[in-house]
Description:
The protein is an alpha/beta fold. Among the domains are: 3-123 and 130-180 and 346-354, no CATH class; 223-335, no CATH class; 502-575, Serine Threonine Protein Phosphatase 5, Tetratricopeptide repeat, CATH 1.25.40. It contains 21 helices and twelve strands. The chain has helices at 63-80, 106-117, 183-191, 199-208, 229-237, 248-253, 260-282, 290-300, 307-314, 318-332, 357-378, 383-398, 405-417, 421-433, 439-456, 465-479, 486-498, 505-517, 522-534, 538-551, 555-570; strands spanning 3-6, 30-33, 48-51, 55-59, 96-102, 148-151, 154-158, 163-169, 213-214, 219-221, 337-339, 353-354. A seven-stranded mixed sheet has the order 1-7-8-5-4-3-12, sandwiched between helices. A hairpin with a 4-residue loop joins β9 and β10 (219-221). The chain is flat and about 75 Å long. It starts with a strand and ends in a 5-residue tail after the last helix.
Amino acid sequence: xxxxxxxxxxxxxxxxxxxxxxxxxxxxxxxxxxxxxxxxxxxxxxxxxxxxxxxxxxxxxxxxxxxxxxxxxxxxxxxxxxxxxxxxxxxxxxxxxxxxxxxxxxxxxxxxxxxxxxxxxxxxxxxxxxxxxxxxxxxxxxxxxxxxxxxxxxxxxxxxxxxxxxxxxxxxxxxxxxxxxxxxxxxxxxxxxxxxxxxxxxxxxxxxxxxxxxxxxxxxxxxxxxxxxxxxxxxxxxxxxxxxxxxxxxxxxxxxxxxxxxxxxxxxxxxxxxxxxxxxxxxxxxxxxxxxxxxxxxxxxxxxxxxxxxxxxxxxxxxxxxxxxxxxxxxxxxxxxxxxxxxxxxxxxxxxxxxxxxxxxxxxxxxxxxxxxxxxxxxxxxxxxxxxxxxxxxxxxxxxxxxxxxxxxxxxxxxxxxxxxxxxxxxxxxxxxxxxxxxxxxxxxxxxxxxxxxxxxxxxxxxxxxxxxxxxxxxxxxxxxxxxxxxxxxxxxxxxxxxxxxxxxxxxxxxxxxxxxxxxxxxxxxxxxxxxxxxxxxxxxxxxxxxxxxxxxxxxxxxxxxxxxxxxxxxxxxx
Length: 575
């Protein structure tokens, strides 16, 4: 399902100022909603469109403001790459989309929209738990208080395979020098990357990033803090009295302590050491260690971080690396680190033109589709209104015979997100016939095909060869598009679990690929272990069961792997 983050002080995508400080979500009786753009009510300048290698823009601001925002977006991302290079960021086959909306157009439209869209929203029953209702009814027994509504000015929403940004902007009042990519957005780029980055790198990056100062052509990390202010003062006074580093093997594994009494304290040391390691890897004139350090990070995401890997990438065994970091620590707490690109940042051209009806419907409609889940989670009684608006926007182009495969895919996903899978099927099949690039669309189509076959199956839910192939085909298409989706591999496992035709070792190797991409996903690891065990591949099953027991988040999940382990021990030896 789509996910969301809301920013009130600054835009979550980058530093678009919130035009008025918005704290509506914190006020009793105020419901903060995603923006709701009704074209018929928001007369004004035409929508403008631009495309860059990284994103599509749909703007209702003047061209000068649109260019300034986009240039800042580009510049900040080039600077971010100094600490989080593009290969370490999540990749989407679907370009990111950004919608800029002129602040001057918001007030009148919002009042009319709220009056028409949300009329009758206070007719809900009182909260069942007797507690205060954030929707504004007050405490149990109190007379209903009228709810007030506010539209959030800046939001970032993302789905399994796409991300979109919405920002309300005041023309001519931008301060590019004080804009920045927010920590939440940077965390999304790093944590959503596949294969997953090592935990120490993500922790160190997110500890460092809020302290970084962006300038026009450089970024600067201020002097480090070692664990706490007090410990930093001790270190500055006498480096020999500083708390020692954690052993490198345990640090790289993410182990802080087996002793619960010291674990919290060691976690602080671990986090500080992660920041120190990143500083060390990037520090120095010309960043001499940068290439080897980033190679170490990237390889650690697909293989175990071993002493040999450190030697290969960094040129030091664990003892030598510990000496390097220990010697660097007193320098790090006194010295800032300034990084700059190898070449001046060149801003790409941004040819703006009037958006077509199809572009408006597709980009705006996909944004409105993403809003559905956000609203459903918080104000479920309003979700149908948002679904209606998304459907209306998308059908405006479809009814004019627009058959862009991207539009068809979004229409199908919109019906899935609105809870109408039957209505989604034709749109998704049509998008598939046009070879759409949209991993989630292929995933949802496979789910619908599998559900149809299982519902009609008379052989105990078993799929014949043709049915299995019909479900696997869209899954393998999704597998070839970015980002990789764990649900694709899980559904591949489900197909083979229901297939009357046994999978070959080559078929099962795809599941091994999935586990290598998502090694911390118990549901996928369990499916893979069960299938390998069922079809006699004992060694592979044992490895997956061992992994599952290590990553299981709770006792019920661990019990599932323990049950498989019992079956494994009872299995006949491999021939």
